[in-house]
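In practice, a research group might receive sequence data for several interacting partners and want a quick structural hypothesis before committing to experiments. The following worked case mirrors that situation: the sequences arrive first, and a predicted assembly follows.
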Amino acid sequence: MTPCLIALVHLGEFALLPPLCLAIALVTAAAHREDMRVILRHALRAWLVTLGGILLFMIGVSVFVSWILP
Amino acid sequence: MEPSVRLTPRERLFRIVGGAALIAAGCAVFTYSKANDPENRAAVLAIIAIAIGSSWIGHGLRGRRDSLVHRDEEAPPGPPISPEMTFAGILAAWLVPGLGHLLIGRRAKALLYFATITITFLIGTALAEGRNLSLDRDPIYFGAYLFNAGETAVGWLLTRHLELDHKIRFLQLGLTYTAVACLLNVVAMMDFVTTCGRSTEAQARPGTEAPPAGGEAS
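A structural hypothesis for the assembly, expressed as tokens:
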């Protein structure tokens, strides 16, 4: 199975993670800051970093399962 | 209290390596539990380990360590808050996310906490088709739900008659959403307590003027 196919198979579940990540980013940013604009800016930045992490994780797992593990 | 602490190179290395080890352990627990337990009950432990590990790596890479909730030096102190009011606010925040902040006049934060936590809770319930609030089926997850008592009680009353009579594709994800939403309420409650403490300290400190009650810091 190619990495892209594995990624697509898992996309159904992984695609549902971003809203959860956004909620975590918003609440933790609100706990650290008071200004709403700063909270939203921090949360957005943390969210984007998290999405990048999830994407890298998916690619890493796909490559590992497809090419390294066999 | 210091808002953040600078880490030594040795501490940074320890945080990065320890964080990576925690993430690896979390992934291993998740994989083992998924293979051996159809309901994957240890998933919460794995998620917590991965979250703490990620946080440690972040501290190591930045070279600074923050507490979960810290005083923001830019924020002006709020109006004086009595201990009774603090206790009532904690109870209110436990029942309804954000209600504690609303009681002390932090309307924007109250709305943010309520909307974020409630929407996440509802998404989790929808993903699990209402089968996520059972003490018998998911006792570990229910432990997390106790931190958001009001919404859990209402949800349990509305969905307690539902049985797990068919396969639900996103049940695990729904449980995770709901558990995380309830645990986020702990962060909101800690922020409330910190806000009350800052207001009390500012009241005790001579020469500090507090804004009128009901005013937003932003």
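Before designing any experiment, note the following. The first strand of chain B starts at residue 4 and ends at 6. Chain B has two domains: 1-66, 75-161+170-204.
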